[in-house]
Structures are given as C-alpha cells and as structure tokens.
Predict the structure of High-affinity zinc uptake system membrane protein ZnuB.
Amino acid sequence: MIELLLPPLLAGLAVALVAGPMGAFVVWRRMAFFGDTLAHGALLGAALGLAAGINIYLAVVAVCLGLAAVLTGLQRQRQLASDTLLGIVAHTTLALGVIAISLQQGIQVDLFAYLFGDLLAVGWHDAVALWSGALLILVMVLWRWRALLSITVSEELAQVEGVAVQRTRLLLMLLLALLIAGAIRTVGVLLITSLLVIPAASARRLTHTPAQMALVASLFGTVAVIAGLTVSWYADTPVGPSIVVAASSLFVLSLLRRGS
C-alpha cells in the first residue's frame, strides 16, 4: 500500500506546497478566472500532445505558457472587459480540447482523468517532474517576492519604486501557468483553480501578513491532499474531488474558528 501511494502522495504534496504562495496571489489579485482559463487550455495542450505523439506533459506546459503570455497581452486591449475575454477564451479552449480528444483514432483516452484528475496513476517519474517544477516556481517566487507583492498592492506605486511591472506581471502569469500544467494530474482541469483558491482563502481568514498567508495556505493544501488521498483510497472515491472537498471542509472550519 505504501509503495503504491507514495508517488501520488509526493506529487500531490509538491502541487500543494507551491499552490500556497501562488494561490495567495490568485486571491489577492482576483485571478481565479484567469486560472480557470489556463486550466481549460491545459486540456487542449493534452489533446495536441496526443495528436502530435509527443510527451503530453511537455505539450500541456507549452500550451499553458503560451496561453498565459497571449492573455497577458490581450488584457491590455480596451474593447472587451477582462472577464468577458477570459470567459470566451476559457470555454473555447475547453471545447476545442474535448473535441480534439474525442477525435483521436485508435487511442484510449480517459477524459474523466483529465477533467477531474488521476493522482493514483502518478508514478515516480511524474513525482520527480512535479517536484522539479515546484522547486523552480518556489525559487522564482522567493526571488521576486517583494516585486510581486508590490504590483499586487499597487502597480502604479510599484512602477514609481522602480519595479518592472509588465515583466513582473508576466512572470507571475507564467509561473501560474507552469503550476496549472503540472496540477492537471492532481485534481484535473475543472478543479485546478479550487486547489489554488480554497486553501488561500482559508488561510486569509487566519493570518495577518502575506508571508503567513502563503505558508498557512501551503499547510492547508498539504492537509487537503493527504485527507483527500486517504478518503479516496478507503472509500473508493475520485481523488481530485476528494481533495477539493477536504480543502472546502478546512475552509468551513476556518469560518467557524474566525467566528469563535
């Protein structure tokens, strides 16, 4: 049992660890819809990877990074509101991804696994790849932590302080895209944003500084992964939704703790 669960557990913990600080920025900057859009693009990346016969994870990373860069540029336009633009792109990429996967001839594709995650199918190679990506994201966040906080508080003030606002914003989007590309195996396309938002929202109610919120969000995400994986193993429930329900339970407990 331990040998079977250890790679999925390590993979889930890698995602939860980095989802803490990234989720904090998603909550502070109200980027949940942006995260959903990137997650839907991940499915399109998986479909393109299958069609081209290349490594699916690399295809997902490439599509998510490219989509993040494009969206960052498109959000500067004035014709459409940002949420309208994101809604169009999100559902278009999701629809294209589902259609592309359904058209794969002679390839057995578990669409449920892409939509809701398949953490129990993660092997040692996947766990190593996820930890490598997670450590890269954490290093970049720590390196640019002050600049990222500055543009979150006020982009105008950050610019006055000499922060390269456009490049820092693009870095944040690219790091978020990299995380989402990796997390597709953990909770799936439709639930990725919940693993970013829910632990961070829970931590926000119990902490007083940005650093505390990021750390507690990582802790809550870790607890949710362990609890969700345990429930899934013993109750035979889908892993991704089980992790999200565990995270939601922690959020409810944070409401009760704050109210007491």
Residues 2-28 form the longest helix (27 residues). The mean pLDDT is 85. The domain at 2-259 is CATH 1.10.3470.10 (ABC transporter involved in vitamin B12 uptake, BtuC).
